[in-house]
Amino acid sequence: MTPKNKRVFLFSEGNATMRDLLGGKGANLAEMANIGLPVPPGFTIATNACTEYYANRQRLPAGLMDEVKAALATVEGDLGKKFGDPAKPLLVSVRSGAKFSMPGMMDTVLNLGLNQETLRGLIKESGNERFAYDANRRFIMMYGNIVLGIDKRRFEGILDETKRRRRVTLDTELSAVDLKNICNEFLALVLTETGEGFPGSPYEQLELAIEAVFRSWQNERAIVYRRQERIPDDIGTAVNIQAMVFGNLGDDCGTGVAFTRDPATGENELYGEYLMNAQGEDVVAGIRTPVPISALRRQSPKLYEEFDAIGRRLEAHYRDVMDLEFTIERGRLFMLQCRAGKRTGPAAVRIAVEMVGENLISKEEAIQRITASHLDQLLHPRLDDNYLTDRGIRPLATGLAASPGAAVGKAVFDADTAERLGNAGEKVILVREETNPDDVNGMLAAQGILTARGGKTSHAAVVARGFGIPCVAGCDALSVDSIERRLSVGTVSIAEGEVISIDGSRGAVYVGSLPLIPPDVSGHLSTLMEWCDSFRVLRVRANADNPRDAAQAVEFGAEGIGLCRTEHMFFEADRLPIVQDMILAKTETQREAALAKLLVSQQADFEGIFEAMDGLPVTIRLIDPPLHEFLPNYEDLVRVTTELRIAVNTLGGQATKDVLEEKEAMLKAVEGMREANPMLGLRGVRLSIIFPGIVAMQTRAILQAAAKLIKAGRSVHPEIMIPLVSTVNELKIVQVQLEAVAKQVVAEQGVEIPYLFGTMIEIPRAALTAGEIAQYAQFFSFGTNDLTQTTFGFSRDDAEGKFLGKYVELKVLPANPFETIDRAGVGQLMKLAMEGGRGQRPDLKCGICGEHGGDPDSIFFCHELGLDYVSCSPYRVPIARLACAQAALNDRVKVTIDK
Amino acid sequence: MTPKNKRVFLFSEGNATMRDLLGGKGANLAEMANIGLPVPPGFTIATNACTEYYANRQRLPAGLMDEVKAALATVEGDLGKKFGDPAKPLLVSVRSGAKFSMPGMMDTVLNLGLNQETLRGLIKESGNERFAYDANRRFIMMYGNIVLGIDKRRFEGILDETKRRRRVTLDTELSAVDLKNICNEFLALVLTETGEGFPGSPYEQLELAIEAVFRSWQNERAIVYRRQERIPDDIGTAVNIQAMVFGNLGDDCGTGVAFTRDPATGENELYGEYLMNAQGEDVVAGIRTPVPISALRRQSPKLYEEFDAIGRRLEAHYRDVMDLEFTIERGRLFMLQCRAGKRTGPAAVRIAVEMVGENLISKEEAIQRITASHLDQLLHPRLDDNYLTDRGIRPLATGLAASPGAAVGKAVFDADTAERLGNAGEKVILVREETNPDDVNGMLAAQGILTARGGKTSHAAVVARGFGIPCVAGCDALSVDSIERRLSVGTVSIAEGEVISIDGSRGAVYVGSLPLIPPDVSGHLSTLMEWCDSFRVLRVRANADNPRDAAQAVEFGAEGIGLCRTEHMFFEADRLPIVQDMILAKTETQREAALAKLLVSQQADFEGIFEAMDGLPVTIRLIDPPLHEFLPNYEDLVRVTTELRIAVNTLGGQATKDVLEEKEAMLKAVEGMREANPMLGLRGVRLSIIFPGIVAMQTRAILQAAAKLIKAGRSVHPEIMIPLVSTVNELKIVQVQLEAVAKQVVAEQGVEIPYLFGTMIEIPRAALTAGEIAQYAQFFSFGTNDLTQTTFGFSRDDAEGKFLGKYVELKVLPANPFETIDRAGVGQLMKLAMEGGRGQRPDLKCGICGEHGGDPDSIFFCHELGLDYVSCSPYRVPIARLACAQAALNDRVKVTIDK
């Protein structure tokens, strides 16, 4: 329909679908105009003109201005005014407007068309000399700055100087004469700065302003913004030229912005603010305080109703919450902009659910409109962004967003203090260089955790996510002095007991106490989740290591546990010494005694978890980490023994000598066990082949716990998972051994237990030989954390701190592959594994238990692959339910398109 | 031809191809009998009877003894003797004999068929009472031990007691009466021990003896031996029953063993020893000293010539060196066994080459008969096995065979001492807990290197292999005290200056000085290598990091360098401080200054290498290891700073304080750079993306060196290799940058340089996305060390010490995947990479530079994949040339079979 080389579109020629060509603002102005809303007439120079401008060495396309003039003539005809006409002058705004909103990044010129002649016409027509000079000084300043490139502060200096001389503080206190003088001074400034006078021809003004808007597409802040928001650089901006309407012509004039529903809560009521006798920039400038839109209902019920009706109409038309700009000129309402309204997570959920109730949108649409970050806001306490913005509060330091949610508390520097204060009811943030298993008691008692070192898989991060505690990890800028009990960032120093706030969703640390918005698992969320469940194909499980998390997971809708890490139980304070005894045992008898003690505790753990899961399947991963993780830190031992050795040599003393000997023995043990690359060392199934006793004990604990519950009439479905398999023989050896243990327990207990044996697929070779592995494995669970590490050869601990950030910045990788599955590499291996595994065993149960199990993009991929379930942190279960539903709905769209 | 259930085969019914059925010994006895050699008549009970025996709960198959009797009847007919006949008694030997030789592992009974009646017949027939009683007491003892299960020492006790009473030391000093009494005492022992008398029926004796031989297939030592030699457990043994001939009937009798050529040197002359008037076991027992076979020529020229002729005939028949057993009974020669002779490496090469000259075998066969370990013996000094065996010398300790060859020298415990003594002409072995770059000067001056820690890729191992220095690494049992300057193993302690010997081919350490056999790169080897080169398709390159190794590689026949590791140059003593300055630079200027200094040295390195390679292609890998490898060890710094801190606190002193500050600064730097899993950290191309300066310098150094040589009229083919790529974008970013440097150097120098850019394929993701990567890479080099690490998720440093040994022992893996490419996993990725890479770029040059490049099995796989070349240590180049030829010859066999 549209000629290919058409570059200028009257509002009557456009519509909302033409965003590519007209930009968001232009398309919506056209749409509003065409459905009969009061929009000041105007037209849009399309983005193709901008592209041509850049292709043509920054020259306006030939003939463009002719098209502009023709369009302008139509506007003149509509309004009975003329551009540059001294009698009835038409003034226009020239605004940028790209396909994607880039608020404030590009330039705008208002009141364009003023010169000495048209100014006189404006005075006469408005009957308001002060208004006209005010409009003129605004125009000269904006134009002088944006089009002519004169520093804005030069103009502001003149304005301030006048105010100083007149001893006033507000612009509004200046008289018409003052403003006239200011205009003259502005024009003089332009003359000296540019060496030429201010352009008098409105058409020249217009042409230069159009060029300036095109230029602003490539200004520094626009480029940075696009990189951040992943907006392409080559799509260009449109330019909207529209007749000016004035909200500052008197008390029957005004201007404002509003949302059709409250963007913070989602409440279905007009939400916004306005100012009478003002121009748009005054609302933003903050010199006068705008009034809530509800006041308009009292002040002018007719206007309010007209505006409210327009809002309703636009909502019905766009089927979404709208963000509106309006101006009232002499009692007449004009719409200047409309777009879909940005909203908080809670608002997004409420609006989507209520709009389904209002028959505005379908359930499917409601689901597709909610994002993971919307839900994340509902599931954790969060900082109040408005509070931060209003007060200009910036973080003291930033680190990795290691576990979502915000927390406020007193900084404490060791776990025991954290535990003591925490148990006494104090809110504390545990601050450590990095955490280790000894710190778990304090971590559990803290509101939040902050570490200076370690990545997203560091001990702090893993434990925090597991327990749903907000955590900022690897905060490099932080110096933690646990002896002086203080942290410092540059010159700022915070002592123990001083309050800090952390935002684990963004990795930010703040000085002092910030207000928190509590999580909101309202009725709307559960309605939305029910809808999600009705569409999704993938099941959703949770990663949970203890009864508390298991219960939390069920509450969030988990349909089983996809990963229960048994070794986390080993780190608990009362277990660790027994685990160490087991590791350091010199005889088999000692080792068996330690294992027998652990059996009792582990069985109790599993009973609790099975009870919480009440018949749902529970995948239990047998011991995975290298044993040296359960022993004291090597470097600490080096330091301590060096100190003790010197003490013994200089001071002597039998007691010191004894301690030295004990520490040296431990050092020797740790030295013998430590590894160059523990991630690739003696762990997982390898450990079970070398030391079969531990997994035999664990299997017995699992099945004895299961038997006990079954005898009590409960249902239990344990799935025993053997980690880190790289060849079928590893699985075979261990599984055969454990099947024997299982048969023995079944025989002893005299009950049938519906257990399965399976494996993680987390090593490339396992994926490559999955067909062989599925001869033994009854289920696969993709451990995509380790699979990503080995497929890329990236140690997550090292990569995230040292180069992954840069990789994403330089677009070496499209995203952090530890957050979103790398389809080309890791995904290819998963596909091979699915084909191999299901080829061998068509009913092979397949799931994912890496952290990708809670990432929407990765969930979409799992859906495509045909997995049976995803498993993620309890706190991401609702997000996973949403993403699973979206994945299923995407299929429908594809089917529809395919048809 | 053979009925399927036939289980007993007369020698006339068998031949050499029937090893599966008749075992090696039986098949060769049949073959010899059938070509008319003097073999005592007999028959073989086939392996299928043994399999049946075990399938049938260890009972002899029904009807077997009937078959045996029928065969025995034929033997009786041939000899005119009868089994159990008091007049002309036939005695037989009953010997085990599996398909694969298992020397001494299973049981044998001689002189079977003796009882009171036949004994009298034997006395009469032999006219030698003493001989007959001697035969009888041997029979009762062997039978009593093996068949009846009576402890051998009980019989020996009786024998010793008689000798004590008779005051003699040798069995031969006992009279006929003594022996008769001993026989009676033996029979009494059997009666008390078994409760039954010694079986008098020869057939009963025979049946029980056959069963005993079958049983011995599953005795403990046979099982262990089979596991070690990878002989299947289910193939069973045959039993050979053969008429006895006696070498101990008088001075015209004798027995001996011989090789048709010298198995140590390969010299073409009968080699062996014999004893007159003796039985086989006497030759082995060592009581009388056997005489060299050459003595027979003088003693009995006719017998010697007959035997020599038989040897020639068997060599011609089997087309190989033969290992023979013979007995002379009353001047008549009997052949009791023949098999292919085991030989040393030097002998194997000489024999193969000479046999081609004698038209016995083809060049192709000669090549196929040589193994890698044969060549390895020729290429390095080695210990004299005979010397060790003769003296019963056992290792003090064992570790990893980290670099082949043996060495003898004084133990020294630091690099500087090693360097000082080494330069003074002393032979030293450098003994360290583990080595680091500071030790390289001492390593180069040492004969051998011994470390207590570290795997086959430890610093010591890598450097040692690179320089061809024998090395035993990771010798756990060793305690190295570098302060007291001594090593200890258990209670044995060796001080500095005491001599030790190490065998880097087997990972053994010995006390004292052992004789070494020097390497032998004789004319035969070069003939063999020429033949190899005429058959092979794969090209062979070497891994060499310096001009010395490059020259060595060319001498061994390398056709280029497949891997030149540039960072090894950084470790040299004069470079390391500059490298550290570069790493720790606080400003860009400092960093550039350090790089400029390195540029000069690196250019000189490359000039030397290019010169040595004289026009052959040289693949240079840009910097690969993490930068912290060039800085001091973290734990050492922790120890030192702890000590210094205490010293400053207690004693003060500005000098100490200054040192502390310096060390603390270094500690902080190292702390900031060290990684949890350095193998998966900031190294390779990742380093080049974060710090582009180093590789830009290296590229400049390479191309400036190339330009200099080209200007001097030389030919140079540098191939610049970017390591550790996991995604095409990494390669693209770095390659684009380096291409710019290259163009600049070409422009500056004004000469064309035929350089290529390529990458290692050493990360699973690179293999999976090889098609994309080949858009940029002009060549691929498979880095199968790292590819194996990442595909399996094995850290080689950790795995080889901690679990890989056990994995191979338990058959979790068929072989150490770091030695032989894992075809199912790593091989699958290589195949995908070849398909992807050549699909994108059909002329893509592909090689391998992991250590697998020197492993024959892996070379066969590389040949199958269609690689262009393999690259290995200079000292393995001849082995690679051999394996490449064997791979090509295997193809021919396949083609022949396919036809």
Walkthrough of the structure:
Two copies of one chain form a homodimer. By secondary structure, chain A is of the alpha/beta class. An eight-stranded mixed β-sheet of chain A has the order 14-24-23-16-17-18-19-15. In chain A, strands 26-27-28-29-30-31-32-33 form an eight-stranded parallel β-barrel, surrounded by six helices. A five-stranded antiparallel β-sheet of chain A has the order 1-2-7-5-6. In chain A, α20 packs across α37 (877-898). Chain A is elongated. The interface between A and B is large, with 57 and 57 residues.
Number of E strands of chain A: 33
Total of DSSP H or I helical runs spanning 4+ residues of chain A:
37
Structural class of the secondary structure composition of chain A?
A: alpha/beta
Radius of gyration of chain A: 34 Å
The largest chain-to-chain contact, stated as pair and per-chain residue counts, equals: A-B, 57 and 57 residues
Mind summarizing the main beta sheet of chain A? 8 strands, mixed
For this structure, the quaternary state is homodimer
The main sheet of chain A orders its strands as 14-24-23-16-17-18-19-15
What are the segments of chain A in which pLDDT stays under 50 over at least 5 consecutive residues?
none
**Straight-line distance between termini of chain A:** 26 Å
Portion in beta strands of chain A:
15-25%
Average residue pLDDT of chain A? 92
The global form of chain A is elongated
Helix content of chain A: 40-55%
Compose a concise summary of this entry.
Chain A is α/β, with parallel strands linked by helices and 899 residues long.
